[in-house]
Amino acid sequence: MSAHPSGPPALHDRAIQDLLFIRRTMEGAASFTDVPGWGLVGIGATAIAAAPVAARQGTPEGWLAVWIVTAIVAGSVGGVTMWRKMRRRLPAPGPLLLSAPARKFLLSFWPALFAGALLTLALVDPFTPGMAPRLASRVLPGLWLMMYGVAITTAGAFSVRAVPLMGAGFMALGAITLFLPAADGDLMMALGFGALQIGFGVHIARSHGG
């Protein structure tokens, strides 16, 4: 006698469904631990190398070009090292599927960076020749530090404790840069994107597997 197609699921099917539910629940409650500590160290090194180069530029446009190139290099370093750390955690070769904490982390990370990019575009105004010197000395460094700090802090709610603490440090440096007239924008960028990330990167690498 065959089972009715619309009958209750077999016992093993219900067990599999229960296990999948438990797994999703555990993933959702876990923290995203694949923030690349050594990647942060690499990003920090690029910022420290870029700061004196940017400071020596004769025009605000040259200064902006140096930091845009640095941001592209740093973003590539961060993306590659995060991908490699996530791959190392896979038990066997196969497609890389984002866990629930990873999705929450990334979805919380990008909005603030997107807002920062749009504000930069509005302030620089690429359709108008020339760029105000104060943008390079204080406004853009403060804006970038603040928005990156917001991104790290919000995304860090789904990661280990060191990540939101690092974001709070960025926000503090951004506020100082924006409102302290004597603050040097390149020095503050080197302190934030350089020294702060290197310090937290070493801590994360030693405490959370690289």
TrEMBL record:
Alphabetized UniProt keyword annotations: Membrane, Transmembrane, Transmembrane helix
Superkingdom as given in the UniProt entry: Bacteria
The organism of origin for this protein: Gemmatimonas phototrophica
Protein name: Uncharacterized protein
Transmembrane segments: 64-84, 105-123, 135-155, 162-181, 187-205
Lineage of origin: Bacteria, Pseudomonadati, Gemmatimonadota, Gemmatimonadia, Gemmatimonadales
